[in-house]
Amino acid sequence: MVVLMSILEVKNLKKYYRNVVAVEDVSFRVEQGSCFGLLGPNGAGKTTTMEIVENIIAPTDGSIFYHGNPRDETFRQQVGIQFQHTSLLNFLTVKETLRCYRQLYKNPEKIDWLIERCNLEPILKQSNNQLSGGQRQRLMLALALVNRPELIFLDEPSTGLDPQSRRYLWDIVDEIKADGKTVIMTTHSMEEAQYLCDTIAIMDGGKIIAEGSPAELIAAHCHTNTITLPKKSVEKVLTDLGLDYQANDSSVFIQTANVDGVLSQLIDAGIELSEMSVQSPNLEDVFLRLTGKQLRD
Amino acid sequence: MASLQRIWVIFRARNKEFFRDRAAFGWNFAFPFLIIIGFGIIFSGENMQGYKIGLFPQPGASVVFEGTTIPVHFQNDPAVDFIPVANLEEGLQKLTQHKIDLLIDGLSSEQRYWVNDASPKGGIVEQLYQAALVPEDSHVAQRNSIDGTRARYIDWFFPGIMAMNMMFSALWGVGYVVVRYRKNGALKRLKATPLTAFEFLTAQMLSRIFLLMFTFSVVWFGSDLIFDFRMQGSLLLFLFTFFLGGLSLCSIGLFLAARGTSEEFTSGALNFISWPMMFLSEVWFSLEGAPHWVQQLSWLFPLTHLLKAARKVMNEGAALIDIQLECGLMVLTTMLFLAVAARIFSWVE
C-alpha cells in the first residue's frame, strides 16, 4: 500500500479586506511530489490563497502546515516562487540576476544547471529590461529554482506566452515533477491544468467548490459527450427523432451520455455521418459548468 | 541575525543598477560640477550684489557721481551698488517693486531720499546712508579689527550648501527607489527570499551613502580648487561628519518610505520633513537670537548636528572629542530610524 505524505496542509484559510471576502474557509492538502492546481475565474481568490501559503501576505485566520509543522524561518529557504506580477532589478544581466539571487540562499543550485534547464544560455548577457515575455518567464522560473526548492509555487506561469514557449515551460515543469519536487500552480489554461496537474481545486467566490484529479472532476461533473454534425438539413430529422440539440449557423450540437444510442438513431434515420465528430468532456466543460459562463472582472 | 553576505549582494546589485542607469548616473555625476560652476560664478566677487540704491537724475546707462551730493566715501562703499535712474517717477516705481532698496535725489541739497517700509533691506540701507552723511572726522565710536585668520562667509556657508544637497539626495534617493521597488513588485520578489527588511534597508542605505560620499568628494575637492577653503581641522574628520550625517538622513528617507505606496505620498512626506530641516538647521543663516523654542526644535534635526559638527571642524579646528555629542546624536538617529523602518517595513502594496 502506498502512503502519500502531505508536504503542505491548509486549514480553514480566511482573508478579508475590510468588507471584501477574498478567501473564505479554504482547506486543502498537497501530496509530496505531486502537482496541485488552483483554478478559478478572475477574482476567485487563487492568487490571494497562493500568496498566503507562500507567506507573502498574512491570513485573517486559518492554519498552514509545512511537513506537518507551522511554517518557520526555514520555509523561505526551502520553497521557490514564480509570481504572476513582479519585477527584477533593472540594468542587471540575466547572469548577474541569477548570481544575485543564488547568493541570498544557504544551499543554492549550480548556476550551470539553472542555465541549461531553463535554456538561458542565449540571453545570459541580456539586461533584465530587454527580455521578451518568454525569456522573462524562463528567468523567473530559474529564480524559483535557484535554491533547490522541494516545493515550487507557479502563479499563472504561462500567461502571455506563445505556444512554443508554453510547451517548453510544460516540459520544464514535467522535469521538476520527475525530480520528485512538488508544484503548486494557478492557471487560466484548462489545457495546462489537465496536462500538468495531478490534483485540481476549482475556486469561485473565495471558496473551493470542487477538488479532485482531472479525470475525477470530469466524471463527477460532466457526464455528456458532444456530437457535432453539419447543419445542412438535419434539424428537422433531429426534431422528429426527439433529440435535444443546440445549433449555430453551420453546425448542430447534441449533448448526450449515450453516444452509441444516438449514433444508431442517426444511422437509422439515414443521416450522413462522414463529417460528424464526437467530443469527450474536458476540464473546460467542468470549469464552465461549475463557475458559470457570465463574464468576470 | 543579519547576514552580511545578503547585505553585500543587495548593495552591489543596487550600485550596478545605479551606475548603469545612464540618465540617473549622468545627472548625478554632472550635478556636482554644475554646483561648482554655479558657486564659482556666484562667489567670484564680481557678481556679489550689495544693497541697491537708485540715484536720479541719471540719463545714462551708468552712474555719474559728478555734480551729485553723494559723499565720496559712500560712493565707494563695497556694500552698496548704485543704479542709474532717469527721474523720480521711474525711481518710485522701482522702489515699489523692490527692484531697488533706496532711492536718492542726487541733486538735492536736503539729501532727499525715499525708502519702502515694506522692504526688509530698506531700513538697513537707510541707516547706512544716514551714517554716511555724518562727517568722517566726527568719530562717535572706536573701530577695532579682529586678529588672526578670519572665517570667510563662504567657509561658513559652503558646508551648509553641501549638507543641503546631501539631505535632498539622501531623502529622495532612497525614498523614491524603495517606493518604485514596491510598486513594480521587485520587493515582492525579494520577500520570497530569506532577505530580511533590515538587511534590505541597510544595503539601500549603504549604497546611497557610497554614492553620496563619492559625489560629495568630487564637489568638495573641485570647489576647494576654486575657493581655497580654509580648513582649520582634519579633512578626514570633516568627511566623517558628512558620512554620519548622510547615514542619518538616509535612515529618515527609509523610514518615510517604509510603508509608502505612491510617489505622491512619499514626496509629500519628504517635503514635510526636508523644508523645516532646511530652514531650521542653519543652512542659510545662524539661529543665534532666534526664539528658544526654534533653537530647541532645530535639535530634532540631524542636519543641525551635521552642520554644527562640520563647521566646528572646518572653522574652529575641532577634534573628534569636541564633536562627540553631534556624532553620537547622528549615530543614534541612524539606528533609531533604521530599526523603526525595518520594523514597520512593507514589502507589498
Strand order of the largest sheet of chain B: 2-1-3-4
Shape descriptor of chain B: elongated
Number of domains of chain B: 2
Task: Note poorly predicted spans of chain B.
Answer: none
Count interface residues per chain for the largest interface.
A-B, 26 and 24 residues
What's the gyration radius of chain A in Å? 23 Å
Backbone shape of chain A: elongated
Beta content of chain A: 25-35%
- Provide the domain count of chain A: 2
CATH class of the largest domain in chain A: Alpha Beta
End-to-end span of chain B in angstroms?
26 Å
SS class of chain A: alpha/beta
> Judging by the overall fold, what is the CATH architecture of the largest domain in chain A?
3-Layer(aba) Sandwich
> SSE order of chain A, as H and E?
EEEHEEHEHHHEHEHEEHEHEEHEH
Give the beta-strand count of chain B: 4
Tally of separate helices of chain B: 13
* Strand order in the sheet with the most strands of chain A: 6-7-8-3-9-10
Overview of the structural elements:
The complex is a heterodimer of chains A (297) and B (349). By secondary structure, chain A is of the alpha/beta class. Chain A has 2 domains: 6-220, P-loop containing nucleotide triphosphate hydrolases (Rossmann fold, 3-Layer(aba) Sandwich), CATH 3.40.50.300; 224-280, Alpha-Beta Plaits, CATH 3.30.70.980. Chain A has helices at 46-53, 75-78, 94-102, 111-117, 133-144, 163-178, 190-196, 214-221, 234-241, 259-268, 283-291; strands at residues 6-17, 20-31, 35-39, 61-66, 69-70, 79-82, 151-155, 182-187, 199-204, 207-212, 225-230, 246-247, 251-256, 277-279. In chain A, the strands form 3 sheets. Chain A has a 6-stranded mixed β-sheet, with helices on both faces. In chain A, strand 9 (199-204) and strand 10 (207-212) form a beta hairpin. Chain B has 2 domains: 4-43 and 152-344, no CATH class; 51-133, Periplasmic binding protein-like II (D-Maltodextrin-Binding Protein, domain 2). Chain B contains 13 helices and 4 strands. In chain B, strands 2-1-3-4 form a 4-stranded mixed β-sheet. The relative contact order of chain B is 0.12. The mean pLDDT of chain B is 85. Chain A binds chain B through residues 54, 56-57, 73, 76-77, 79, 81, 83, 85-92, 96, 100-101, 103-106, 143, 147, and chain B through 5-6, 9-10, 12-14, 16-17, 20-21, 181, 184-186, 188-189, 191-195, 347-348.
